[in-house]
Known about the structure:
A hairpin with a 2-residue loop joins β4 (about 75-80) and β5 (about 85-90). The chain has helices at about 1-10, 15-20, 40-50, 105-115, and strands spanning about 20-25, 30, 70-75, 75-80, 85-90, 125-130, 135-140, 150-160, 160-165, 175-180, 185, 195-200, 215-220. By secondary structure, the protein is α+β, with helices and mostly antiparallel strands.
Amino acid sequence: MMTMDLFDDLDAPAWAIESRLEQLAPGAVVLRGFATANAITLLADLNRVIADAPFRHMVTPGGFRMSAAMTNCGALGWVTDRTGYRYDAIDPETGRDWPPMPESFLRVAQDAAVRAGFEDFEPDACLINRYEPATRLSLHQDRNERDFTAPIVSVSLGIPAVFLFGGLNRADKSRRVPLAHGDVVVWGGPARLRYHGVLPLKEASHAMLGRQRINLTLRRAG
Ligand code: MD3
Ligand code: FE
């Protein structure tokens, strides 16, 4: 069939075109606008999560208040306090389990993971970060998870941010990657332990979220 022949002549597979797949580095794939069509559902589900587990500013082991407000959903939640970083089944603010992972979060994360080549991603934790203008996240590695063979999927909503994508050593030079509303990034394989962070956000307003950026990071923690 003619249309199939045209597709077969392109050097990228059809799914790469549909989702505008960009490879940042081995193991790191950006899917521009992948979550845009689901944003209303994701934000409605987020509102139910934060009614149960409100955003809060956690404290690092060094005693610094984090500038991003955070909460979690799923079986495990990432927490930090003066005693260290860890995953915990209980929200220390409420003494209750974290809210369940909304189906909409799971679906977008698993669909994105499949696009990036990770077929069996079963996240049990979603860390939710809320940024306002001037909020930043300093360079760090995500290494509190048990199994580094699982990727991390991040979903950006609201005002844009510049993501810092470093190397396997803190001193490695980092690249700046702009992330906008609806962008989804899958970080796995050789990219899984790369240093990363977020530059201070610029003043901006988004039609759905006002002066906020929400980032969902879905992980296999336990
Ligand atoms: C690259 N969040 O929650 S998401 C975090 O935009 C975190 O809120 C940032 O870093 C944010 O830990 C960045 C992108 C991200 C998440 C995990 C990664 C990039 C990653 C793990 C390895 C390499
Ligand atoms: Fe991180």
